[in-house]
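Example 4.3 (complexes with small molecules)
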Amino acid sequence: PEPQADADPTKKTLVILGTGWGSVSLLKKLDTENYNVVVISPRNYFLFTPLLPSCTTGTVEHRSIMEPIRTILRHKKAAVKFYEAEASSIDPERKVVRIADNSEVQGDMTETEVPYDMLVIGVGAENATFGIPGVREHSCFLKEIGDAQQIRKKIMDCVETAAFKDQTPEEVDRLLHMVVVGGGPTGVEFAGELQDFFEEDIRKLVPDISDRFRVTLIEALPNVLPSFSKQLIDYTESTFKEEKIDVRTKTMVKNVTDKTVEAQVTGPDGEKQTIIFPYGLLVWATGNAVRPVVKDLMSRIPAQKDSRRGLAVNEYLVVQGTRDIWAVGDCAVAGYAPTAQVAGQEGSFLARLFNNMAQTQALEDKISDLSSSLNLQPGDAAEASRRLEEYQRQLRRIKNIKPFHYSHQGSLAYIGSEKAVADVSWFNGNVAAGGRLTYLFWRSAYLSMCFSSRNRLLVLNDWFKSKLFGRDVSRE
Ligand code: FAD
Ligand code: NAD
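Answer. The structure with flavin-adenine dinucleotide bound is encoded below.
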């Protein structure tokens, strides 16, 4: 493949895949003057996922949590190339990434190769379906902006269809039954948002059918939010009971049709029973699966043969069994949960590492220049050896970069009716809290974490707007 036409031949080419939490945190702190940086992602924006569940009901508008990658790159010291494309395969032998433009508008060139000296993989994960029949065809996921838009549209379609003249009572019940599969944080937060929407808006706007609205949350394990403390699990389950969200634990979905979900329930006596849930909207939130481009790379590297959940990396986030390839976030297996918090810290770590490597290289070059000039001009030996010593001291200091260490700040989740749960590490101790105060903490924490001031302002505006005027129920 052709190298970048305008690339600086004296610098290494650093290719970064993805524009999510991992890659964007890396870009934020990376000194782009040290490398020819190329970013490749099918999404030309960063998405603040923690507020994605709020977009499904219009509490927050989707554009308020998106930040264009081109705006982010414009503020970097040296120019960064961005290609809106998907990486379809990575060849670690030839050091090239094959990319494809799969967007709606296409030019003559839709596929090509990008060579790299250094590669960072931050492509995230896709939705797990465990091969359960009917899931891909009939359910909505909740990972990307398009998913949230689809859900928002479908909720209102179900409501308007249920309100259709002479609709049969059974059909009204089915259409207004919203089923969420997966009791992890995604499923829990979505169920909470959905119930709020009905209580605060739909009930007023479509009162005649509002009593028939139901939310069911299905979870295979004995409880929801398995990663939270027992106290918060109990608090969430009792809040859901008050909110009339039907939580079905020990219930595993086995099959999905266009109108029903079939699940197997394990009773207290261990006996298994099949239940059919008719639904209007089905949201599938059962966690992560490995993306095809990552699976393909893993199959090319013998050291990855035992890794199942993604690319096994070492303590410097180098993909095991490769050279010059690093992985961050949900596609990497570093021993941490697949969260934005972990991905963000991994990205920042790599930025420090790469800034450091560039400094190291520059110092090593200076040392070698100085050492050779020392032989040529013995007269200035004293000054030169003083400088040499100084460079060597600096080099020792920056070469001493410590391995990646994750620092857990805590877990937060919104559970509806202006309540949230939080497991937070404070002054080396753990604090578990749930309720309205925690909700205010949740809001202020996420507001402060928004990518830009623009995002922050938009989100605040959305919160005020939906509180003051109600959520916008127009079906786009
Ligand atoms: P992502 O952020 O998913 O980014 C992946 C990027 O790679 C995207 O830009 C994508 O377009 C791109 N990409 C995909 N395929 C390719 C390809 N073939 N080639 C090139 N690029 C590609 N975590 C928390 O810590 N706190 C929360 O409150 C929280 N809330 C969440 C709410 C929801 C609804 C969801 C779904 C997740 C939430 N998470 C939260 C988890 C968090 O979003 C993920 O762990 C995080 O996004 C992982 O970051 P990442 O960079 O690995 O992947
Ligand atoms: P998850 O993996 O945390 O939870 C998925 C749940 O689905 C599991 O509890 C699993 O038992 C259940 N499940 C799987 N198959 C099932 C089936 N057939 N029938 C019924 N239940 C089934 O997934 P998630 O909630 O999407 O979260 C993914 C990652 O993102 C996690 O690391 C999570 O911590 C993070 N996240 C964090 C937040 C937050 O901090 N507020 C919000 C969303 C996501």
